[in-house]
Design goal:
The structure is a single chain. The chain is mainly α. The protein has one domain. Helix content is about 45%, strand content about 5%. It has helices at about 10-20, 25-30, 40-55; strands at about 65, 75. The protein has a two-stranded antiparallel sheet. A hairpin with a 5-residue loop joins strand 1 (about 65) and strand 2 (about 75). Helix 1 packs parallel to helix 3. The two termini are about 15 Å apart.
Length: about 80
Amino acid sequence: MEHKKKSKAGREERLNVLIRHLPNIADHLASLPGGVGTDDLLDAAVAGLTARRWSRDDAERVCEPEYDARGLRVEIVY
């Protein structure tokens, strides 16, 4: 992504990608309850799509996983 997620351009950039996978996402954005930011809904949508890809064994990794000081796996999956 080229723009920060809290900027108008960033929201539009993310929405343009997500709408291909979640055609009704604009309806959800139009009816957000108070206190829920657009960027929060977009983050949740990406997390849900990633979880769906993971469950279908279709997720991809950005790089090979690393491990933190506690031995926990650290990686970016989409």
